[in-house]
Automatic annotation (TrEMBL):
InterPro entries in the cross-refs: Acyl_CoA_acyltransferase, GNAT_dom, N-acetyltransferase
PANTHER family linked to this entry: [RIBOSOMAL PROTEIN US5]-ALANINE N-ACETYLTRANSFERASE, GNAT FAMILY, PUTATIVE (AFU_ORTHOLOGUE AFUA_3G00765)-RELATED-RELATED
Key word Acyltransferase present: yes
Record's protein name: GNAT family protein
Amino acid sequence: MTMSGLRLTSPTAELAEQFLTWRHRPDVTRWFLQQRIEHTEEYVADWAAYDDHDHHRVVAVLDGAMVGQATLGVVDGMGQSGNEAEFVGREGRLSYFVHPDHAGRGIATALAREALANAFGRLGLRRVQAGCFADNVASWRVMEKLGMRREQHGVKDSFHTEFGWVDGYTYALLAEEWRE
Ligand SMILES: CC(C)(COP(=O)(O)OP(=O)(O)OC[C@H]1O[C@@H](n2cnc3c(N)ncnc32)[C@H](O)[C@@H]1OP(=O)(O)O)[C@@H](O)C(=O)NCCC(=O)NCCS
């Protein structure tokens, strides 16, 4: 259950500025691959234009404060040449962040649910995939709550700054499974 006062909305430059005030906290980056993003004018301006053909983002606002976001990148699936319409630009890659002060209250689940609804609804994608460190329990719990399937347990396939080579998981969901 999410709390009252939570609103899911489109990205803006102002929400990007708020995100950058907590994006680099150690408790946020601990289990994330991309450790730093540059705080440039381009990055902030990009947020407002983020809903282009291959990137989509949904932002969580709680009582006026930016508390999370989910991003969906559109990528090519795999397939044999001659059938490009089937797989080019038909897959999504999902990732999400929630402000640590608001963790454990269902915000990431609400964001990811909205991102999946967009992916399989208006974007017409056929498959969405996401990866995480196996020890990032909160992250894979979100995916399991939404019915995503653990398709890969990679043994020591992911490098972590503090822990070295550790296990990773890949989760995925098909459009027809979402519709069920
Ligand atoms: C991962 C993250 C997005 C989760 O956000 P959140 O809003 O707390 O997620 P939700 O509240 O929707 O769900 C989290 C679930 O994990 C569970 N959980 C959290 N930590 C846990 C732990 N250490 N052990 C077991 N379960 C845990 C929660 O209880 C909850 O499950 P439940 O509803 O069945 O009780 C957030 O912690 C975050 O932004 N982390 C930093 C960035 C990151 O790692 N992103 C994902 C990269 S793959």
